[in-house]
Automatic annotation (TrEMBL):
GO cellular component: cytoplasm; focal adhesion; plasma membrane
Gene from which the chain derives: Tln2_0
Subcellular location: Cytoplasm
Superkingdom, natural source: Eukaryota
Protein name: TLN2 protein
Classification lineage: Eukaryota, Metazoa, Chordata, Craniata, Vertebrata
Pfam families, A to Z: Talin_IBS2B
Length: 243
């Protein structure tokens, strides 16, 4: 399935270019670009799922790495379409145009990451390091979203935020063990666990910080510590990668 994935991903990059240029053209062209990209991402998701299935059920962690990679691309495409919609018919110096360029850059980064992951899957010696690199990139993107001024759609209790930090503790222990063993399967498992643990923590932290009972000072502190925790964890993953 490798060649089919590469070919479909290449088509998606072309769709991305049409989407970005479509913001400055007619509504019809923009609609065509959006529809085309939606069709292509569906095809890409299907062929990546087939590729993951072909690895066999005895390697579920690598299957998860592949599925996560296509999920990242789909999320980036959704964000890009949203940014295109916001920038449509706006002048070149409008802030929405900068958001569009940023969204397009993230999209290309995630497609590139998917392709690297697909190539690494066939090489057992690099599977773990590639999974770790992809997770580091994913966490950086999640941190950018966390640090944005966007208010979460719902709030949660401080207790929920505290509960989510336990996942970070577990993932940290796993990362240290993987750094000691240097086994590719341990590194892959660490990458998958780290990704979920940090994303859950950031979501819970931001939602709790916007709880109606939280003061502005406490909100700022919570957001600051959420950022510091994530940066500290990224540093840990970078060390594992180095080892």
């Amino acid at each position: 399935y490798r060649e089919n994935i590469l070919k479909t991903a290449k088509a998606l990059v072309e769709d991305t270019k049409l989407l970005v240029s479509g913001a400055a053209s007619s509504q019809d062209k923009l609609a065509q670009a959006a529809q085309s990209s939606a069709n292509t991402i569906t095809q890409l998701a299907e062929v990546v799922k087939l590729g993951a299935a072909s690895l066999g059920s005895d390697d579920p962690e690598t299957q998860v790495v592949l599925i996560n990679a296509i999920k990242d691309v789909a999320k980036a495409l959704s964000d890009l379409i949203g940014a295109t919609k916001g920038a449509a018919s706006k002048p070149a110096d409008d802030p929405s145009m900068y958001q569009l360029k940023g969204a397009a850059k993230v999209m290309v980064t995630n497609v590139t990451s998917l392709l690297k992951t697909v190539k690494a899957v066939e090489d057992e010696a690099t599977r773990g390091t590639r999974a770790l690199e992809a997770t580091i990139e994913y966490i950086k993107q999640e941190l950018t979203v966390f640090q944005s001024s966007e208010v979460p759609e719902k709030t949660s209790s401080p207790e929920e935020s505290i509960r989510m930090t336990k996942g970070i503790t577990m993932a940290t222990a796993k990362a240290v063990a993987a750094g000691n063993s240097c086994r590719q399967e341990d590194v892959i498992a660490t990458a998958n666990l780290s990704r979920k643990a940090v994303a859950d923590m950031l979501t819970a932290c931001k939602q709790a910080s916007h709880h109606p009972d939280v003061s502005e000072e406490v909100r700022e502190r919570a957001l600051r510590f959420g950022t510091e925790c994530t940066l500290g964890y990224l540093e840990l993953l970078e060390h594992v990668l180095l080892v």
